[in-house]
Amino acid sequence: MTGDSEGFSFDSAGATDTGRVRDHNEDSFLTLPSAGVWMVADGMGGHHAGDVASQILAEELETVGVPVSAQDLRARVSERVTRAHNRIQTHSDQLGHATVGTTLAALMIHESGFTCLWAGDSRIYLLRKGRLSRLTTDHSEVQELLSAGSIDAEEARHWPRKNVITRAIGIYRTPRTEMVTGMVDDGDSFLLCSDGLTEHLEDDEIAELLGDGNAETSARAMIAETLARGARDNVTVVVVRCRANGGEPGGSR
């Protein structure tokens, strides 16, 4: 899906798959280049719970409209995250106070600035001039142990509670999110993904697939590679390629 802001044009695409093991898909995604908003959400709670939670988040963000500034865009998205949070909690009450929630990984771009807003272990990456960097830090028990130096990266890969997250939309009294901002460069490619992707692909493999082809081709290639490796979880990706208006197609990678 293509779209434009005042400073950049976007080629973006999303793809999702239930995977090889799960019997339903609790992930949702949103590509809304006209507003400068993209999102991946990984629900939790099982049938009629996790899938509903992530869908509620996508439904709310889809109503963001057209912002007039980066601050306005962040305010609109934050307001809709809060509305989704409240709707998810109401759904939980209807299910007898069941645990219902969803991760959030949202990318916002207005003119030449970007904002990442997230909760949980869905991630946002940036590929710039061939170098991949992760813009988000997982809200998870295993990340806390890594950050504290209690375990190393190899232990983290096999940690028995590595899928336990410490933040989510719909779980706590209020949404607990984190935010980072930066500037967009011509040729930047962003990747939003659920942990179903990063369970199977290393950063160098993600960089190679993210840097190849258009957004649709890259998104589908990442899903296909994850499925080929067993896809133990739902897997969802959104790819956003940015080109400065007036620049050459493709930009730097």
Automatic annotation (TrEMBL):
* SMART domains per UniProt: PP2C_SIG, PP2Cc
Q: What keywords tag this UniProt record? A: Plasmid
Q: Which InterPro entries match?
A: PP2C, PPM-type-like_dom_sf, PPM-type_phosphatase-like_dom
- What are the PPM-type phosphatase domain coordinates in residue numbering? 11-242
In residue numbers, the region (Disordered) covers 1-22
Q: Which PANTHER family match?
A: PROTEIN PHOSPHATASE
**What Gene3D superfamilies does the annotation carry?**
PPM-type phosphatase domain
Q: Record's PROSITE patterns?
A: PPM_2 (PS51746)
Where on the tree of life does the source sit, at the highest rank? Answer: Bacteria
Q: Which organism is it from?
A: Paracoccus albicereus
Pfam families listed in its UniProt record: PP2C_2
- What residue intervals traverse the membrane? none
Q: What is the recorded name of this protein? A: Protein phosphatase 2C domain-containing protein
